[in-house]
Design goal:
Layout: H1 7-11, H2 14-19, H3 33-47, H4 54-60, H5 70-93, H6 99-108, H7 118-130, H8 137-156, H9 160-177, H10 179-185, H11 187-223
Helix pairs in contact: 3-5, 4-9, 5-11, 6-8, 7-8, 7-9, 8-9, 10-11
């Protein structure tokens, strides 16, 4: 489906067939969701420094038969790539929006997460992120980044099983907590179109940032060899979220 179509038109296609009566309960049911989020989540976990283990590999590489056609598989691959790129580029534009920064921040704050409260702490993330009832795909991307960051953190704390749980809870949040928003915005087709625009914008911002950094290095070198230039401020600046600050950005 073309990105020029309305979000309503997009959602009236593929995903609508899967949701059936779920629409009445504001659930977003799309059989491609788990395969799509698993692929993006797993790759971002590795980006965050999580080592591959047999248990994690078996879980994240099993899609449960959710891709029933070659078209589904191509769509899942394409959209999961866009989700990954969006998260990674956000972190490059503003380090405070990166997985590595979030995880280090969790460690620095000595976030007390253990098997007895890991679900409660995750639900706090979901509630805090969307309690003002404002949703857009930018917030979703940031929420996904935070979910992965939280999973990396619990892995660091020796809770490998909880990593799998965090992914499953993320899927549940998409289906239930964010369901009516995903339906309204066109489901994964709507997200795909949004991500196309966002990745292009963030790529430009990263290139601009790198160019600005190079100019700063030149100026600093001319002034004093002892001056270490500060990293260039991103074009989006505060528009990249760090943990709960997301609601102040994509609102």
């Amino acid at each position: 489906m073309a990105c020029g179509e309305t979000f309503t038109d997009m959602y009236s296609g593929h995903a609508k067939k899967d949701r059936g009566a779920a629409a009445e309960s504001n659930r977003f049911v799309d059989r491609r969701t788990t395969a799509l989020t698993k692929r993006a989540f797993y790759n971002l976990l590795k980006e965050g420094g999580v080592q591959e283990t047999r248990k994690l590999t078996e879980y994240f590489r099993m899609d449960g038969g959710s891709c029933s056609s070659d078209e589904d598989e191509r769509f899942v691959y394409d959209v999961s790539e866009k989700l990954q790129q969006s998260v990674i580029l956000m972190g490059k534009v503003n380090r405070e929006g990166s997985i590595s920064f979030n995880v280090q921040d969790f460690h620095d704050r000595k976030w007390d997460v253990h098997h007895g409260n890991v679900y409660k702490e995750f639900t706090t993330i979901v509630t805090s992120a969307f309690e003002d009832d404002v949703f857009n795909f930018g917030r979703f991307i940031s929420f996904f980044c935070i979910s992965v960051s939280f999973a990396v953190y619990v892995f660091d704390k020796g809770m490998e099983d909880a990593v799998i749980s965090v992914h499953a809870w993320t899927d549940q949040a998409i289906e239930h907590n964010l369901g009516r928003y995903f339906i309204r915005e066109g489901g994964w087709e709507g997200f795909s179109c949004y991500a196309d625009r966002l990745v292009m914008r963030l790529t430009r911002d990263v290139l601009a940032q790198e160019s600005q950094s190079e100019r700063q290095v030149d100026v600093a070198g001319a002034l004093s060899s002892s001056v270490v230039p500060l990293a260039a401020a991103g074009v989006l600046g505060a528009a990249v979220l760090a943990v709960f600050a997301m609601k102040n950005v994509f609102s």
